[in-house]
Design brief:
single chain; 309 residues; mainly alpha; 8 helices
Length: 309
């Protein structure tokens, strides 16, 4: 009786134990599934947050680039407008100087034309006077010949030597008058040539002065107004001074990662979230970490063979 009862109790206990174990396994499997689902949800949420943060940063970068590009475009437009205005002003200045030079050249040309016209008139007047004097001399010579012939024919008995002396005296007088007229003409021609040479010298001097003035203006435009300062040339620059000021020999160079650098990396945040859920050693954690992009892309030569694959 006791054996049957013990056996029935053992069977009941075994059945209850199996039921408890089955329920425990079921509960554990459900708990694991729930934890995995919650971890998956948390990882997905973190991944979404990381992607959202990355997109937000990219949007900020794009906005900054857009603002910088707009500012650069505005600066370039202003620079082009200033350059165009300066070019137009320089062209206007050159045109004004060219007009002034042309006016001066035209004035000098008119003066030269007037001088040439006056010289031509003077030469024509001198030539007319010379022709008139030559005509008078011919008339006097003809008159002398006629008088001489008439006196010779009327007075054949006169002394031939006296007539010859008189004729030679008249001829000498006429020749002296002609010579004086030629001397006056040559003096007038020499004075005219001297005036032309003086005017030409004045024109050359004016052109030289204008050329010198243009060269002086050009030198003034391109001249560099900088004082000689050898101490400033040999002194330290702002960059070298800042580097010397920031150098602290008491501390060695820092190698490794700072806390701020680690917190900037999204993979570190994902790993911490997985570690809190005790999923950091699972395959899902490895896949989640590989799916998140690092803060800085590593060089190809620093990757291992498995990482490259």
């Amino acid at each position: 009786m006791l054996d049957k009862r013990s056996k029935s109790l053992f069977c009941a206990w075994d059945k209850a134990r199996k039921t408890f174990l089955a329920d425990a396994r079921k509960t554990l499997s459900q708990s694991v599934k729930q934890q995995a689902a919650s971890a998956q949800t948390a990882a997905d949420k973190l991944k979404c947050l990381a992607l959202q943060h990355e997109l937000h940063n990219e949007l900020k970068v794009l906005r900054c680039e857009k603002y910088v590009q707009e500012a650069m475009d505005a600066i370039e437009a202003d620079a082009e407008q200033q350059a165009l205005a300066g070019k137009q002003e320089e062209e206007a200045r050159q045109l004004h100087s060219r007009l002034q030079h042309n006016k001066q050249q035209l004035t000098l040309y008119h003066k030269a034309q007037e001088a040439a016209r006056a010289e031509a008139q003077a030469a024509a007047a001198l030539q007319a006077e010379e022709e008139a004097a030559q005509g008078n001399w011919l008339m006097c010579e003809d008159h002398f010949v006629l008088n001489f012939c008439s006196s010779y024919s009327g007075c054949e008995s006169a002394d031939m030597s006296a007539d010859k002396n008189y004729a030679s005296g008249c001829q000498a007088l006429l020749q002296s008058q002609l010579n004086q007229e030629r001397v006056n003409f040559r003096q007038a021609e020499a004075a005219t040539k001297e005036q032309l040479r003086a005017k030409k010298a004045v024109m050359l001097l004016c052109e030289e002065q204008q050329r010198t003035a243009r060269l002086d203006r050009l030198r003034a435009e391109v001249q560099v107004h900088v004082e000689a300062d050898p101490e400033r040339a040999m002194a330290a620059t702002a960059a070298s001074s800042a580097q010397e000021a920031s150098h602290n020999p008491a501390f060695a160079s820092v190698t490794g990662y700072t806390t701020e650098t680690l917190l900037k990396d999204k993979r570190f945040k994902v790993l911490e979230a997985l570690r809190q859920q005790s999923l950091h050693n699972t395959g899902y954690a490895k896949q989640a970490l590989l799916a998140v992009s690092p803060l800085t892309i590593p060089r190809r030569d620093t990757l291992t063979t498995s990482a490259k694959d």
